[in-house]
Amino acid sequence: xxxKKLVNQxxxxxxxxxxxxxxxxxxxxxxxxxxxxxxAHGLLEAKSQYRIEYTAVDGVRxxxxxxxxxxxxxxxxxxxxGGWPVIVWTHGTVGIxxxxxxxxxxxxxxxxxxxNTWLSLGYAVVAPDYPGLGSDGMHHYLNAQGEGWSxxxxxxxxxxxxxxxxxxxxxxxxxxxxAAFAAAGYQPTYAPELxxxxxxxxxxxxxxxxxxxxxxxxxxxxxxxxxxxPKIPYIFYIWQSAADTNPTLKAENYFQNAALVQLDEAKAxxxxxxxxxxMHNRLNMNNSLTPNIQSLLTNALPSLSYPTLKITxxxxxxxxxxxxxxxxxxxxxxxxxxxxxxxxx
Length: 345
What we know:
The structure is a single chain. This protein is of the alpha/beta class. It folds into 2 domains: 2-207 and 305-340, Rossmann fold (3-Layer(aba) Sandwich); 213-302, no CATH class. It contains 11 helices and 8 strands. Helix 3 (144-161) crosses helix 4. It comes from Klebsiella pneumoniae. Pfam families: LIP. Keywords: Signal. This is Putative exported lipase.
């Protein structure tokens, strides 16, 4: 079958960053509410589609229960014996405000085409929003534990509520690749009952002790140094997430005056309007960031990092040679590091 062929050809990622310990928690992944999804936010290849809210552990803080949300799409056709196999779609950057949640908005043409294809092939789609998107609190951007635990609890909830088979493939793009790989890393200890048979990643963000802010943004000697950089919104979201945890952080220590208005607006603006403002105002590394921004990234590293790169199922990594959002060099380093761990593929 198509999916198994894809998995067999994929790159398996192995290496250990930090140990994942067992987590003693109450039962989570329980559906709290279930309602038909607004058709404007749905997919044409779905016979039925729902928005659910479910219980989850607060991964940002490492304890406590919260309620997160997801969309679930069921394909046309007779239900297969044992239930529908599942694509778990982890979405790219949408923002950090609750209103930016994919389940509350119309999906992009690209995402709709992609997910409709999976539905047409006979796969159900479970699409978590992540904590703080469509739910209470600020979304902590690229927080691996927050994303990963919520995705796994969303899968648990969907499996108990819908005719789905415990045969799962995580598929993520950009921030979604970060969320998918984090979920894959946490799964053995956080949700060992889930049967993840493969993970597909494209445009994967990767942070390590060697991560250098200067390498992520347009260099000062670049001929386009006066142009806006579409990656600036991402550092805004990372700072807002850090400031939500540590209110003593002062924006002016990390950002120049030209960027402060858009930095504040990042709390409310979803990615498209925020990026439009950044590009219109030509915000980039040279006129927006201070040298202290490196310390922001360094201090955020524990939350940005994957729990492990050693995954026991096949992982496919797709890299865009002209990616303007996740630097190609970052993606290549990710692939290089996991390959250096001795993984055959």
